[in-house]
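Key idea: predict the complex, not the pieces.
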Amino acid sequence: EVQLVESGGGLVKPGGSLRLSCVVSGITFKDYGMNWVRQTPGKGLEWVSTITGSKNYIFYGESAKGRFTISRDNAKNSVYLQMNSLTADDTGVYYCARDHDMATIGYYWGQGTLVTVSS
Amino acid sequence: VLMTQSPATLSVSPGERATLSCRASQSVGNNLGWYQQKPGLAPRLLIYGASTRATGVPARFSGSGSGTEFTLTITGLQSEDFAVYYCQHYNNWPRAFGPGTKVEIK
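Result:
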C-alpha cells in the first residue's frame, strides 16, 4: 500500500519555527523528486519546494526562499521541510507529494499536515 | 510562469459536458497537469503531459492543448466529478498552480 505520511504541523507563534516530515512507503523513494505543496485557508494550491531524486537539486517558491529548507534522507524514505520565521501567511495545510514515474509532477500525495501560525 | 484558469465556477448538470480552461503566461510546452480536489482531501492527479490520463482515471476526462492554452474536458459529468480542478505547469522553476475552477451542480 502506498503511504505518504506527513507530521510535524501544529500551532506556532509568529517568528517561530517548525520542521515537517514526510515518510514514504510502498513506492520507490530515492529516484524521484519530492515536493511540498501548501493550501492556505479557503485558497488554492501553492507549490513550496522540490528536491530532485538523483542529484538532490533544490528549488523553492518565492514565499519559501530564505526561510524554508527542504532535505531528504533516502535511507529513511523521508523528506523534510524546515520552516523558520513563520508568519500568519504561512498558515495552511502542507502536503508532500512524490513525482509521477513519467513526469516531474506530484502524483502520490500525503494527507497533509496543518500548520497554524498565530499568537 | 503565471497560470490562470477560467471560469472560476462552472455550473453543470449531471450528464453534461464541462470544459475547463487553463492559460500559461508563457509557453510550458506540454508540461501541464490537471488535478481534482475534493473537500478535505489531497489533490488527485488526473492528467499529465497535457493529455495523458493518470492510471485509473476514467476516460470521460480528457486533456488537450500545448504551449500556453490548455483544456480539460469532462464528458458525461457524474456526481463524483463535482470538485475543484487545478492546472499546474512543470516546465521550469518555479512550478505554479492555477487558481482553480470549481465545478458545481447546476
